Amino acid sequence: MLDFQTVKMDKTAKKHPVGLLETKSLASALPEKNAEGRPKYTQILTPSKSSSASNGDSAVAPSSAEKKTFAKQHQQRSNNNKQGIKNANHQKPRGIFLPATEKRPFNLLLKRQEVVARPTDIKTRSYPITPDNVIYFSGPRNFLSAIYPCKITVDENEYNSVEHFYQACKLYTLVGQEKAAELKASESPIEVKKTTKVLLKEANITSKKVEEWKEKDSIGVLKHVVTHKFTQNEALKDKLLETGDKILIQAYIGDTFFATGASFHYVSEWVSRHVNQALVYPEEVTAENVKYLPLVANGKNALGWILMQVRDELRAQSSA
């Protein structure tokens, strides 16, 4: 089996707010942080349901003139999108690319991921690539997804999904307690992602700072909460273990770090082209080892990697 990689040479006292529970067990997820320097996170609570009175207005069907106007506006937007994609292909920044896909609802620029040659002393695990040895996942209805609704308790704080905890950690670290607390109003994982983007923009947090946090802390944070998700929910744990030793791939076009940066159709074709080769992953999930992850289509598929490692750990615990 071949380990295919794009090889590149490796180059290698803030005040804490009062009143938050300390995330003690996160020390193992982020071992480089001591107890004083380790971040603490705010709890995300389900907002109270406030009843709003109906205004009593009934829906009115659009007239033929309005339909023509809507059609004209739709055509104009379509033309603008095509022109925007054309311009992006000619003017995209270095290290950015447009993923190949048959249909794209919006103009999408993605970071091009690279793979560094692995040192020989790193323990790895090899997964043969065949269509039957792959499980794809994406979206809020799939139990493997970070945006799958699922109650998770971390240090006595309750979160509505993996995404809730992840975004709370990001906001707390980059913006602070008060802004992170504003996520309380966002009940669904999708709302949390949108709210986080708005709050980061309002705080003038640059994409560079977000990327730096992602490279340094995101893997430890995600591994920590994914482990909690499957240890606390027996049914989900059983479903994860039922995937056996198959490769778990997040086929999502909008992310080349945690996913593949490509659609399901594109990734399935990629798998077919690489049959009888293998994906070789570092056994230990750390931020340092991300650079050694092989590419799956256009992306690192880091969430898939984390899920497979958590699966191995749960299986070992079950057989102990």
What's the arrangement of secondary structure elements?
Layout: H1 26-29, H2 64-91, E1 96-97, E2 110-111, E3 124-128, E4 134-137, E5 152-154, E6 157-159, H3 162-174, H4 177-181, H5 189-202, H6 207-232, H7 234-241, E7 247-250, H8 264-273, E8 278-282, H9 302-319
Parallel strand pairs: 4-7
Antiparallel strand pairs: 1-2, 3-8, 5-6
Helix pairs in contact: 3-5, 3-6, 6-7, 6-9
How is this structure best described in words?
- The chain is mainly alpha-helical.
- The chain has a domain at 110-319: Orthogonal Bundle (Tetracycline Repressor, domain 2).
- It has nine helices and eight strands.
- The strands form four sheets. A two-stranded antiparallel sheet has the order 1-2. A two-stranded antiparallel sheet has the order 3-8. A two-stranded parallel ribbon has the order 4-7.
- The chain is globular.
Summarize the model shown:
It comes from Caenorhabditis nigoni. The chain is mainly α and 320 residues long. It is 39% helix and 9% strand.
CATH topology of the domain at 110-319: Tetracycline Repressor, domain 2
Provide the CATH top-level class of the domain at 110-319: Mainly Alpha
In N-to-C order, the SSE pattern is: HHEEEEEEHHHHHEHEH
Tally of individual helices: 9
Task: Write out the CATH superfamily name of the domain at 110-319.
Answer: YbiA-like
Oligomer: single chain
What's the average pLDDT? 77
Strand order of the largest sheet: 1-2
What would you report as the Rg, rounded to the nearest angstrom?
22 Å
Share in β-strands: 5-15%
CATH architecture descriptor of the domain at 110-319: Orthogonal Bundle
Find the structural class using helix and strand composition.
Answer: mainly alpha
What sort of overall outline do the alpha carbons produce when their principal axes are compared? Answer: globular
Number of DSSP E strands? 8
The poorly predicted ranges are 1-62, 84-94, 101-107
The major β-sheet equals: 2 strands, antiparallel
N-to-C span? 31 Å
The amount of helix comes to: 25-40%
Domain NADAR: 140-315
Organism: Caenorhabditis nigoni
Protein name: NADAR domain-containing protein
Pfam families: NADAR
